[in-house]
Amino acid sequence: ANAMLRDELDIAWASRQTGLPLDDPYQALTLASLIERETALAAERPLIAGVFTRRLQLGMRLQTDPAVIYGIGPDFNGDLTRRDLRRDTPYNTYTRDGLPPTPIALAGAESLQAAVTPADGDALYFVATGLGDGSHSFTATLDEHNAAVARYLARLRADKNGG
After folding, report:
1. Could you give the percent of the chain with pLDDT greater than 90?
2. For the CA atoms of 80, 81, 87, 89, what is the dihedral angle to 10 degrees?
3. Helix ranges (DSSP H) in 79-141
4. Residue 117: in which H helix or E strand, if any?
5. What's the whole-model pTM score?
6. Which helix or strand (DSSP H or E) is residue 48 part of?
7. What does the alpha-carbon distance between residue 112 and residue 125 come to, in Å, rounded to a whole number?
């Protein structure tokens, strides 16, 4: 399996877009692992790759919850808190710039491909829609993102209250 992953990574790296904020194939693999953990929807992988790529290019923190959870390790109880987001670990992308030091998951071929060929666009944010299909809302500004978060929270409350 390791040789297969190495081959996939070599192929993906050889086909990468120019100008990516990635120094080597290992960073592409690390980015792919974040993409893998952020969505199960194949169509969203290049969009999430685009958000992360633009953030890296702009010097914005990635702020990806799966990396924070990975950094907490076995102590994580399934409920990510504000305190967790402030607790610095090498994997806390809220407290640290750039990519985490290692991959956080095994990345599939689609996530690898997305990491090296991210979608164009202006989105810098994404949040779950709460529609139950695993989809996300992608936005370009913090105001738009906050509105999308509010919609997500409203859906969660409606679901909890039976509709």
Report:
1. 88
2. 10
3. 82-86, 109-116
4. none
5. 0.93
6. helix 45-58
7. 20
